[in-house]
Structure formats: structure tokens, C-alpha cells
Backbone:
């Protein structure tokens, strides 16, 4: 039974499997490799996943949600129609759909997955990802960091010599840099840096601003549909400039047509500030890993936005070498995750690659500091596992009582970088009972173990009695207890998920609705006609006729889409 690899992305998600000696992306029911990470609820209270949901972003914004990955592990709820979901539950719908796609492709049940997470995901975010897998009916014993997965997809784990490489990830949501090192069969993330406010969308913004300025328009005077059509034009123009020297943007406002034409050189000038901003995280990651750009053996590009030649050029200049880009930048993470799955599955005959990440944040405990004489002040942070330490890691610190006859020590676990705990994130608490004694005479050895999946275990040993207590983090932000998971699984069971095999036709209807809303006049009538015709054909339940019509209408929609 195969262990699948899943890239649970901010914009899109993918699933891959190791088959006949190679990693393969499994296409979804629409025969597409990318499944948009978008969820929507329809009129029948059914959950829609992927492309169909994405089509409804404009027509049914209050019933549709995207970009929820960044809230994983946070105490957030999202209202979709009559439902309220956590980010974990939303992710579980995506995972469930990918699991079904894999099952239909493989012709067998899939029970286990390796899921990728950003290298900077903290404990709560990683746990939330594992829980999302469980809610989708998947066993998730391994999480893998996205840059590590990409490096594995390029086979870098098979290098014999010690090497260091950099993963440059410019996606739809964030910009992330990771420096990895392979040493004696151990792959280690040495440092991570990034810019959470820089992504592919910013390049669209630059084009939109240029369009507005050149045509002397005012963005505030355009209605929502015109703005969204303009952004769509910017996306098309940006993609066109990745393969051609020239591209154009067209927008119709009140029966008037506005346009611009530009070439790559102009685009590069417009995006000069963004290009500059790509340099900072690279420099920071190199500094944190204490290496020079010339020591980087290979640079791997991932994330859809690295298809832009201007991004590739700047990377080549920074490192004086051509980056690795022969694997589709959207697909390398899923491919790497499935290779890790295959290595895990066949660990008897294949040595499992040892992967280590860095802990993205410092993990520590609250302590009281002596301020004068016998006076203590609580609220200080004692770091135990420091940021950017390679994991798995286990570290021990000793704490002792601060007053006579003290019988309790409260171990409060925090994550963050501030000297004061109030500015850090509280992860959990453990109360320890110690024998009565003089101040400072009773001690506790506090061991923090951060494992390959980024999960933290806190073990406290009372030195005088050798009694051990393990901290079960009761409330890491947004995480659920096992009981809660069981409860939510039961509740989710009753929620109807739109059948996967009806996706194709539903997508045509949803896309038609969006195009109808975006269009005006004659074009609108034409779309309405196509939709009515398709609805009529659907009611005949003649599968061959439906398939023929679906193809024809999709082609017509494609043609319409190019001219918005
Ligand atoms: P990801 O989150 O990795 O799927 O990346 C999605 C981002 O990649 C979006 O901002 C897209 O606009 C961008 N993108 C995808 N394909 C291209 C392309 N051919 N040229 C430029 N940007 C692209």
C-alpha cells in the first residue's frame, strides 16, 4: 500500500506517489495536477473543493474561502454559509479530496501520507497539519519541510559529498529562503528567512498600477467586478511575459476599452523595488547559516512565481550560477514528499533519509529572576531550544525552588524571542509537586525534545525523587484534543461533500456564472444562452451528449476569458 506525498499549499495543493521507480504527480478528476486550496459551500449545503470552489470566489465570496493555510494552528473560525470551520477542518477537505484522487488513480485505499509544511511552521501549525490529515482519514507520521522536499525531488539527498544548497521559494502567499546542508546522509535545514509580505500577487499589483496610471483611471471608481477583471488581466499579462517578450492588458469600463502593451524590460523596471526586496532574505539566511554565497552548491527554484525570467535572472546574478529549475516549480514539493513516503515505506531495504529541520522559534520556559536580595520577579523567558537549532534536538535545563517550603513549581512553556514571556506565545503548562525544603534545595531537570515533525515534548524530572512528569500541552493555540477530534470527525461525517465525479460539470456551471457576472450586454446574453443550453443537456442525463457539450462550452469559455 502506497504512502502518498501531499503538498498542502496556500494557493494550490498537489498529491504524488512513487510508482514504477519514479515520483509521479496524480492528476485530479479534472485531469489537472494542481487543486486550488479553496473551499466553498453551495446552495444545497454541500462542500465544494478546488477549481469549482475557486470559480465561486467572485460570485459567492461569503460562501467561499481561500488562503486559510496561514491560519493553521491559530484560534480562528471561518463562517461559510451555515457552517463554521477551523483552518484544520478546511485543510482536511482538501486532503480528503486529494486522498480520493489518489485512491481512484491507484485503485486501492490510501491510508498514510507524508505532508509538507513550510520550514517556519511552529509547533501548533505542524500539529494542526497532522490533525487535518487525521480528520481526512489519513495517518500522518511524517511531516516534511517544503524546502527539504524540493531538495529531495532534485535527488540532492543522494549526493555523496557534503553539500550546501539554497531553496528559493516565491509562491502565491510568501517568499521563503532556506539553506540546507547534506552531511553524512543527514539533511539539515541550516537557516530560514523570508518576507511574509512579498509574493506573486505583488507583481500583479505593479501591473495594475501601471495600467491605471497610463490610462488615467481611478481604481476607487471601478466596481468590484472591474477590479477583479483588471487583476485577472494582470495575472495573464504576467504569465505571458514569462514566455514571450511582449504582452498586453485590456479592460472595458462603461463600454470604453482601455489597454496597455509592455515588454519584459518595462516589466522589470516596474518591478525593480520588488526585485530589490528579494535580496534581503537571501542575505539574512546566508548570514544566519554563516556561509558565503559562493559556498552554495546549488540553488533550487520553487513556487509558481519563479517562472518569471526576471526572478531567474536575479537569482543567477546573486549566486553566479544557473538555478535548478528543470522540475516544474509547482510540483517539486509534492514529488519530494512522496519520495520521502517511499523511503519510509521501504525502510527495510532502503535506508531512510535522515532529515533535520531547524526549530523556527526559540522554545523556553517562564522563570523568576532575582531582582534584589531574596526578591524575585516572575515573567522572564529562559530559552531552552534556541531558534535555528537543528532538530531533532533534546536539551535539558535545571530549575530550582525560590522560596522556603515551596511545594509547587509551575512549568509554563513559551515560544518566542522576547526576554519577557508576555510578548511570547504560551504553549502549555505543567504543575510539579516537590517535597518541602529550603529555597533552592529542590530542583527539576526540564528536558525539551523537539522531534523531526517539529513536535515538542516537555519532560520534568524532580531530582530528589526522580519522579518524571511529561507535559501534555493542553492548549497549544488552536489545537484540538483527541476527544475534540473524535467529536469533530463525527460532526464532519454529516456534512455532505460534493461528489468528486460530478466536479467537471459543476465547474462549467460555476465558471459560467462568474463569466456572466463579469460580462455586460451581448456577451452576457451569449453566456446565459450557453448556460441554459448546458443545463438542458444535463437534464437529459445522456452521458455522451453531456461530455460532448461540456468540451464545446469549455472551449467557448476559454475564448471569452482571453478578452476580458
Ligand atoms: P504557488 O503558490 O507556488 O502555486 O504560486 C502561485 C503564484 O505563482 C501566483 O502568484 C502566480 O501568479 C504565480 N505564477 C504561476 N505561473 C506563473 C508564470 N508562468 N509566470 C509568472 N508567475 C506565475
Residues:
Amino acid at each position: 500500500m502506497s504512502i502518498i506525498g501531499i503538498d498542502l499549499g496556500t494557493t494550490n495543493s498537489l498529491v504524488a506517489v512513487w510508482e514504477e521507480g519514479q515520483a509521479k504527480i496524480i492528476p485530479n478528476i479534472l485531469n489537472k495536477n494542481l487543486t486550488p486550496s479553496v473551499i466553498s459551500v453551495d446552495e444545497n449545503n454541500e462542500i465544494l473543493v478546488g477549481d469549482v470552489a475557486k470559480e465561486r470566489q467572485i460570485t459567492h465570496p461569503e460562501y467561499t474561502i481561500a488562503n486559510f493555510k496561514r491560519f493553521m494552528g491559530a484560534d480562528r473560525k471561518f463562517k461559510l454559509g451555515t457552517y463554521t470551520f477551523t483552518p484544520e477542518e478546511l485543510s482536511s477537505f482538501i486532503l480528503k479530496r486529494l486522498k480520493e484522487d489518489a485512491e481512484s488513480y491507484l485503485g486501492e485505499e490510501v491510508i498514510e501520507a507524508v505532508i509538507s509544511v513550510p520550514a517556519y511552521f511552529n509547533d501548533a501549525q505542524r500539529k494542526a497539519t497532522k490533525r487535518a490529515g487525521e480528520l481526512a482519514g489519513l495517518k500522518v507520521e511524517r511531516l516534511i519541510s517544503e524546502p527539504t522536499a524540493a531538495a529531495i525531488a532534485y535527488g540532492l539527498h543522494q549526493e555523496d559529498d557534503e553539500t550546501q544548497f539554497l531553496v528559493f521559494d516565491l509562491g502565491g502567499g510568501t517568499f521563503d529562503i532556506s539553506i540546507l546542508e547534506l552531511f553524512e546522509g543527514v539533511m539539515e535545514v541550516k537557516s530560514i528567512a523570508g518576507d511574509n509580505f512579498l509574493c506573486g500577487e505583488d507583481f500583479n499589483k505593479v501591473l495594475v498600477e501601471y495600467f491605471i496610471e497610463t490610462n488615467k483611471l481611478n481604481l476607487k471608481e471601478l466596481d468590484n467586478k472591474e477590479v477583479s477583471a483588471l487583476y485577472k488581466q494582470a495575472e495573464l499579462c504576467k504569465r505571458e511575459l514569462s514566455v514571450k517578450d511582449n504582452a498586453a492588458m485590456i479592460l472595458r469600463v462603461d463600454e470604453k476599452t482601455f489597454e496597455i502593451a509592455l515588454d519584459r524590460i518595462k516589466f522589470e523596471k516596474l518591478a525593480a523595488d520588488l526585485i530589490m526586496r528579494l535580496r534581503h532574505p537571501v542575505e539574512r539566511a546566508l548570514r544566519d547559516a554563516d556561509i558565503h554565497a559562493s559556498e552554495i552548491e546549488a540553488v533550487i527554484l520553487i513556487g509558481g512565481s519563479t517562472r518569471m525570467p526576471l526572478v531567474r535572472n536575479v537569482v543567477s546574478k546573486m549566486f553566479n550560477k544557473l538555478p535548478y529549475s528543470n522540475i516544474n516549480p509547482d510540483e517539486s514539493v509534492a514529488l519530494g514528499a512522496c519520495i520521502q513516503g517511499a523511503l519510509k515505506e521501504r525502510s527495510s531495504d532502503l535506508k531512510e533519509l535522515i532529515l533535520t529541520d531547524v526549530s523556527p522559534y526559540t522554545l523556553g520556559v517562564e522563570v523568576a529572576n532575582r531582582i534584589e536580595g531574596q526578591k524575585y520577579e516572575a515573567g522572564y523567558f529562559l530559552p531552552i531550544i534556541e531558534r535555528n537549532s537543528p532538530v531533532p534536538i533534546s536539551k535539558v535545563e535545571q530549575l530550582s525552588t525560590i522560596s522556603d517550603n515551596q511545594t509547587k513549581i509551575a512549568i509554563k512553556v513559551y515560544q518566542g524571542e522576547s526576554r519577557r514571556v508576555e510578548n511570547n506565545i504560551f504553549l502549555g503548562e505543567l504543575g510539579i509537586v516537590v517535597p518541602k525544603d529550603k529555597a533552592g534545595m529542590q530542583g527539576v531537570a526540564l528536558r525539551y525534545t523537539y522531534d523531526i515533525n517539529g513536535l515538542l515534548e516537555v519532560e520534568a524530572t524532580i531530582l530528589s525523587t526522580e519522579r518524571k512528569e511529561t507535559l501534555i500541552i493542553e492548549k497549544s493555540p488552536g489545537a484540538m484534543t483527541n476527544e475534540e477530534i473524535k467529536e469533530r470527525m463525527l460532526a464532519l461525517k454529516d456534512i455532505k461533500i460534493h461528489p468528486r465525479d460530478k466536479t467537471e460539470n459543476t465547474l462549467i456551471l460555476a465558471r459560467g456564472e462568474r463569466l456572466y457576472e463579469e460580462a455586460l450586454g451581448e456577451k452576457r446574453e451569449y453566456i446565459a444562452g450557453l448556460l441554459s443550453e448546458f443545463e438542458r443537456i444535463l437534464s437529459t442525463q445522456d452521458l455522451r451528449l453531456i461530455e460532448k457539450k461540456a468540451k464545446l462550452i469549455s472551449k467557448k469559455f476559454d475564448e471569452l476569458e482571453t478578452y476580458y
About this structure: Confidence is low (pLDDT under 50) at residues 474-478. Residues 294 and 319 are 7 Å apart (CA to CA).
